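Reminder to self: tokens first, then the designed residues, so the page reads top to bottom the way the pipeline ran.
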């Protein structure tokens, strides 16, 4: 009987251990996902964001996982569905994410942005209305600078009386204007400020928008408040260390401050985003 009792006892012990291991595995938290607006090719997004994410995970104790996308459509489908835990979007997407899922902006760079309309330095164009029926190059219909500047032009009477060329990237916009294939181009002031000397010295700004709060990092409201607070406080602590200044600047979070939807982004609800982002590319006549 003793061998039988021993085997039964060991069986119970093994069974109990298996249950404990299963329970421990089930309780192991899944990583929180951070979905990034596709500003550059995925490999570049991984390169720029991975060091920041590793530092944030280490200091906050939160396990975080990057989600990058090759195109804007897939990214915006994720926002609409509310699948990512955290998101990094442009300002107009922050409005759309608030409307669809109540994503909460947590943190942003303290540096405000402006959309700018520029021409070649030697262009005869001196004011906005000189561009009536002319060609203006944009990155795309959904990019922040495109939406914000087109909305501003509409209110400044130029409306839509110009030919829109969507070039796919900021560099292509610069190139299109420099080569004379477009009469003007649109970008963010920060992009023009950090462009090459040839581009900066060869362009002239003729219009700029009001200041705009930059891209926020937002959290889905399903996340516990303590998780959201730890995420925010850790980023602010990282930003307070001058050693991390270049790291944060490379991802658009230089000198981070707390974000607030109503203060920073609610005014953008007045923009007709649906119309402006639904436009298709205009081709040359």
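Designed residues (285 positions):
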């Amino acid at each position: 009987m003793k061998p039988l009792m021993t085997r039964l006892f060991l069986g119970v012990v093994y069974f109990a251990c298996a249950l404990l291991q299963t329970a421990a595995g089930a309780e192991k938290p899944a990583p929180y996902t951070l979905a990034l607006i596709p500003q550059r090719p995925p490999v570049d997004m991984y390169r720029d964001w991975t060091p920041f994410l590793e530092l944030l995970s280490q200091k906050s104790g939160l396990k975080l996982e990057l989600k990058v996308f090759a195109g804007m459509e897939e990214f915006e489908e994720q926002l609409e569905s509310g699948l990512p835990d955290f998101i990094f979007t442009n300002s107009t997407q922050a409005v759309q994410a608030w409307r669809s899922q109540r994503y909460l902006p947590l943190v942003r760079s303290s540096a405000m942005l402006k959309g700018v309309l520029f021409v070649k330095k030697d262009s005869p164009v001196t004011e906005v209305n000189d561009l009536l029926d002319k060609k203006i190059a944009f990155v795309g219909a959904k990019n922040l600078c495109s939406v914000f500047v087109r909305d501003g032009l509409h209110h400044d009477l130029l409306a839509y009386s110009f030919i829109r060329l969507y070039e796919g990237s900021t560099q292509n916009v610069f190139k299109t204007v420099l080569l004379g294939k477009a009469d003007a181009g649109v970008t963010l002031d920060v992009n023009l400020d950090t462009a090459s000397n040839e581009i900066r010295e060869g362009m002239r700004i003729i219009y700029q928008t009001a200041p705009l709060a930059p891209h926020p990092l937002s959290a889905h409201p399903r996340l516990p408040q303590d998780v959201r607070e730890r995420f925010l406080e850790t980023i602010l602590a990282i930003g307070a260390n001058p050693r991390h200044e270049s790291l944060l600047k490379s991802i658009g979070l230089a000198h981070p401050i707390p974000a607030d939807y109503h203060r920073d982004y609610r005014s953008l609800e007045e923009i007709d985003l649906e119309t402006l982002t639904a436009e298709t590319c205009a081709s040359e006549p």
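The domain at 32-112+213-266 is CATH 3.40.190.10 (D-Maltodextrin-Binding Protein; domain 2).
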